[in-house]
Amino acid sequence: MTKKNNDIEITAGKPIYGGKCLSEYEGKKVMLERALPGEKVVAYIKKKKKGYIEASAKEILERSPHRIESECKYYPTCGGCKLRDVDYDYQTWIKEEVVRDCVERIGKVKDYKFLPIVKADNSSHYRNKMEFTFSEERYYMSKDEPFDQDNFSLGFHAPKFYSKVIDVEYCYHQPELLNEIYKSLRDILKSSGLEPYNITKHTGFLRYLVIRITTENNVMINLVTKSRELDIISSIADQLKSKHPEIISFMNTINKGLSSTAYGEETILIQGNDIITDFIGDYKFEISSNSFFQVNPDQTHKLYDKIVEFAELKGNENVLDLYCGVGTIAIYINKLVRSVTGFELVEEAVINAQKNAELNSITNCKFVSGDLMNLAKEGEIFKEIFDIIITDPPRDGMHPKVVQSIIDSGVSKIVYVSCNPSTFARDVQLFEMGGYKLKIVQPVDMFPHTYHVETVGLLLKQ
Ligand SMILES: C[S@@+](CC[C@H](N)C(=O)[O-])C[C@H]1O[C@@H](n2cnc3c(N)ncnc32)[C@H](O)[C@@H]1O
After folding, report:
1. Could you tell me the distance, in angstroms and rounded to a whole number, from the CA of residue 343 to the centre of ligand 1?
2. C-alpha separations of 346 from 227, 271, 275 in Å
3. Which residues are catalytic?
4. Which option is the CATH number for 129-274: 1.25.40.10, 2.40.50.1070, 2.60.40.1730, 1.10.10.60?
5. What pLDDT score does 401 carry?
6. Ligand 1 within 6 A of 295 CB?
């Protein structure tokens, strides 16, 4: 019986986007979570939708040979990793299959070249930025976990719980140095008596902790609090700095509001500099506490090298860099082209991009702020003629109006960088209907142990 909450015995089919397997039960399609292809599982039905069922495995009857022991005691409850108990080669095979499935099933693309995924050399300790949440309400992962008298929790939101946080002492995503600093700061804060935030009552002081590390092991801390208590934060920063001289920036963001984000009304410099400097290839970038910056530095230059390879730059091209963030792609390719024009929604990122260009003595890149959907509607993107377009949209992909304006421009070459293969495939179909052909697809693993995958695609005008 396929009723909600009923258990079914099912064999997991091929992997599809979102960490799921496409399976079948009594002639109905099942999107099955928490199972690997080929595994026989008992799953409970989460939702019945028109045409398919959503189910989640709760017991594995026949294990995949690719399952391994996870070294992390918070896995899988914490939700930060979905594949930590799967061997790395198989993780990357899953990602390849997911990208291929999206391109062929959603994008309806035929006759294209699919390149093997670019794997990561380090599948753990790769992230250069981490965000942790404070809470007065701890999520207990098991009955054996000792009760915390202090009501202090710092870690990750428990899936499906609005207010509860899993108390995390160590995270395999972050480099060892960040784990050490995280532990010291956690100990200082826990013994300080400062109250963690309670999201339901909107009480407490400590809200979020954002830590960044550069490739040269310089560290920036941003403690997000509900109110302005600069003396207290300064004393915490001093205590931490005395143990960890690698900290070159200590910031304090004040978020008095109800929004559950690590952004706030003001960000105050407590100690050191208000920026840290990092490198991609030979180029340096100034990063402020709120800037977007690629989180896996080992893989970023591999991703950007693929963009360069697909674009086959000759040196005389005028390039359009859509969704340019802090200008990293534009700056990375500046010497290989005549000019780059970047467009980006976030004004602060555009200011960073301009500063980054100056920092690297670059004069052939310019950056424009605005919402690309509006700029496309108003005909503002194609005031100049471009030879190549590089586009790197957020997870939702490109607005159809932006896709249409590119098609109307008649540009001959598009390099599409995507962090969501399903919206990539959807947009590729629009480009193919508009007279372009997807020639090559290259998955890149920027986020080991998660189901996320980056894709680079080359589209040529036919
Ligand atoms: C995946 S990031 C790419 C950043 C950059 N290319 C890089 O490699 O670091 C996507 C960027 O698109 C920007 N963005 C999101 N929606 C946008 C919109 N409607 N118009 C312009 N930019 C947008 C985001 O602020 C973000 O910087």
Report:
1. 8
2. 26, 26, 18
3. 419
4. 2.40.50.1070
5. 97
6. no
